[in-house]
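The following block was generated as part of the benchmark described in Methods. Ligand: (2R)-2,3-dihydroxypropanoic acid.
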Amino acid sequence: MSMDLTEKAQGILRGNDRGGYTLPTKGLYPYQWNWDSAFAAWGFATFDADRGWQELETLMSGQWEDGMIPHILFHRPDPGYFPGPDVWQGRGPIPSSGISQPPVAASFMAKMLAMDPTGEARARAMWPALKRWHRWFMDWRLDRGAVCVTHPWEAGRDNAPDWDGAMRAIDADDVGEYTRRDTSHVDPAMRPTKYDYDRYLKLVQIGVSVGWDHEKLREINPFRVADPTMTFTLLRAQRDLAAMGRRFGEDVSEIEEWIAVLEDGAETLWNPEIGGYDSRDVRAGRFNGVLSNASMLCWYAGINDARALPALERMLAAAEYGLASYDPEAEGFESLRYWRGPTWPIMNYLVGSGLEEQGLDGPAARIRRDTARLMEAHGFAEYYDPHTSAPAGGGSFTWTAAVWLGWAGHAPQHQQGAA
Ligand code: DGY
């Protein structure tokens, strides 16, 4: 492991630390983001266990009464970000957004517990909150057992081609005037378009109009897409939650039922036409026909599916550096635009570590090595061009540094927190 890069990665986490929570990166994302924070906790756990546990505790402190843990916690006002707390009008104990994000926190907590067994009391104290959050997904977000997103930001893959059809169905003519902040921090060519932003905001306005009442939103929200990111991360998180629950002497029978439901739900995402796991537009009743890096999260979710291997191998062969966020051979692939092509270390980690766990050493080693090469060449960017390795998006990125510390900076067959 290169000490130089390890020190730099630790320095990024320290530099983005705001005392109890960590910014994804300064400027572009000046608050606590849900899944970024779970990666940050794991990254910290590699050199400062206490700070790692604290990160998760701060995240849990934003939990809504109904169990949801929001995708952004606005701890302190920051005029550099839009849309902020006044636009979202979340209804939790801390100003927040009104949607959630891929539930990876329980899975990172399990890793942290393996790395630091002395943290067991802290993990135990958070376990019920995680279970309530997982139940919230089961209550409000399922379609035929697959987990739906109600906003592209909920999947974390903001402008992925998966959402194109559902976004076209949104009338955003009356969204009103607003000023974006993201494009003052990052080249607009690497960010979602105005067309996308109009619709992102329209969906927020719809949520606010009913006070983020999930029951009403299930009826009126025009955007409801069953998503492999959510389905596979929740399935994995339920398995990790159940394993920790057994260790803590909890009754995990309900979680076992959820696992069975999600396993059936995952199968509803298999699209034989593209030979891969796809997202499903629930409102329109059709597959989106998109092969993405999220399609390849089945192994991470504990589903060792030989049907998915040919597409994985083809996508890896079509890019130089890791797994592209969108099939490089698909029409509309854009190597620098966010989730429409770039390679993302966090997704490379989730997919790559899942492949490792399932014994698929060839593709796993390729993804891990490529991810390390990106960081060795260009440091810790948000994402990278999968053909040239050019860094893109925000710089000094927390979760990219965490992936180095926990995984990419080590030899294959080793990751921080592997049981
Ligand atoms: C953004 O502001 O671009 C975020 O991704 C929203 O979560």
